[in-house]
Amino acid sequence: FEDGVFMKFYDASFHEAIENTGSSIIKSASVDERWIKIRRPTVVVGGELTMDALEVRHDPTTNVSEASLQLKSNCGCLLIDDFGRQRINPAELLNRWIVPLENRHDFLTLSTGKKIQVPFDQLIIFSTNLEPTDLADDAFLRRIPYKIEVGDPSAEEFRKLFEVFCQKFDCPYCPEAVDYLVQTHYRPHGRPLRRCQPRDLLAQIHNYCVYHEAVMELRPDMIDRVVRSYFTAVQGNS
């Protein structure tokens, strides 16, 4: 509550409420029970991100304001996925955060016009497949101390990813089927291995099996079926 305005922090899209089992002041009767104990949040946004989401949004009907995305991610992680593909200019977004990244606090404007200082204390990750130097200048890149390139997986890593996602889909892992996939649909076509492809191909196999009420299996014939759809480029008439 600030300057006559209530601000709502909890967002079920990003926050997971947890039971307070240990000793904590939250159990005290003097604490406002509207506070909820949550896990450290992970806020993920992508191409839908707009500048409005980075500011306090006010509902005049209820006189309740909603916290900005970066405020909801405090003490957790804020992941900007597909950075550079938002509907806003990357420079505009970076300029909004260049001071908070340096000073670890942000300034937000309430509906009354009053500015308040709030913590800017989270792990911020920018994920992009674009060239970083095309998106930000040196001044901003200096404020992101770690730049990590995630390259294509090796054949062994590719197999391991299939094994991991087979567990997620409750599908028996078959290394021979993965070898068939690489030997038949990748190497002859010079097609690079991508880290997202084991998940995507298994998801298509899963959907096919659900539709046909079949047991999900990782088999060469299933692989042939989903690969035709997954790697097909749809071209319009010239």
Can you describe what's shown?
This protein is α/β, with parallel strands linked by helices. The chain is built from seven helices and eight strands, in the order E-E-E-E-H-E-H-E-E-E-H-H-H-H-H. A three-stranded mixed β-sheet has the order 1-4-3, with no helix packed on it. A hairpin with a 4-residue loop joins strand 3 and strand 4. The termini are far apart.
User: In total, how many beta strands?
Assistant: 8
Helix tally equals: 7
Q: Could you say which structural class the secondary elements and strand pairing correspond to?
A: alpha/beta
- Give the quaternary arrangement of the chains: single chain
Question: What is the CA-based Rg, rounded?
Answer: 23 Å
Beta-strand portion reads: 5-15%
Topology as H/E string?
EEEEHEHEEEHHHHH
> What is the approximate shape?
elongated
Describe the biggest sheet? Answer: 3 strands, mixed
Main sheet strand line-up: 1-4-3
Report the average pLDDT across residues. Answer: 87
Distance between the termini: 60 Å
Low-confidence stretches: none
Estimate percent helicity.
25-40%
